[in-house]
Amino acid sequence: MARTTNNTPRIALTVDVCALAIDESSARLCVVKRKNAPHKGAWALPGGFAEAKEEIAESARRELQEETGLVASELEPIGHFGAPGRDPRGRTVSLVYAALFLGEEPELTPADDAADAKWVDVHRPGKLAFDHKDIVKQTLAHLREMIELRGHLGPLLPRKFSMGDLRMIHDTLTGEDLDADAFAARMRRNHTIVHAGKLDGRSALYRYKKVRTAR
User: Fold this and answer.
1) Which burial class, exposed, middle or buried, applies to 85 when counting CB atoms under 10 A from its CB (0-12, 13-18, 19+)?
2) Which pairs from 185-188 meet CB under 8 Å and 24+ separation?
3) Which tens digits make up the pLDDT trace of 99-131?
4) How far apart are alpha carbons 74 and 141 in whole angstroms?
5) pLDDT for 172-214, tens place per residue?
6) Closest to 32 in 3D by CA, of 100, 132, 124, 105
7) Distance in angstroms (rounded) separating the CA atoms of residues 78 and 10
8) Strands 161-162 and 193-199, how do they pair?
9) Cα Rg of the chain, angstroms
10) Range 48-77 average pLDDT
11) pTM higher than 0.70, yes or no?
12) Pair 78, 138: CB distance under 8 Å
């Protein structure tokens, strides 16, 4: 293992982003074709090395935008991946984030370390470099848990959203097709959302409750 000048192990810090585009019929994952070794020409998640003077989330936003043109206003931290041997260049630990885009897939503009970029079915992404297929699986499990156990997707949704938006995300991530009324009742039982007006005077909008912290 490479070592620093004071003989401690050299461990690199990287970021990877699972960017998902979700509509009523599918959940799509953004992948990029690697321009450089290792795994040159293979498909992978957007990501790269964190800069020394950046916040980690800002590194993730930067890498996503540089390689795909996507701009993520909000990111959800998923976890870290650091198994020895995951990167042939040496020991690396990757901090993973999710970004969510509702509706039509945004246009991708590959650049920087990405030779190409495309949207693929998140449930069948094909062969991915490194341990990125495991990262995708954990990201989906994390987002499902956020909806089913916590009743919300935190900052990944707009400040106001419809019950249809939330159900669309749930069904496309889980593969289920829940009855609209049953899903709405489940979400209300979680006591995490409240009414926030109407869209065009018709469809109800919701927002997440503000959580009071102990003083």
Assistant:
1) exposed
2) 186/151, 187/151, 187/163
3) 999 888 999 999 999 999 999 999 999 999 999
4) 19
5) 887 777 788 888 887 777 767 778 888 766 678 888 776 443 3
6) 132
7) 24
8) unpaired
9) 19
10) 96
11) yes
12) yes
Q: Which two tokens stand for residue 42?
A: 């293979």
Tokens of 161: 């959203």
Residue with tokens 């206003």: 73
Chain position carrying tokens 């198994």: 83
Stated length of the chain: 215
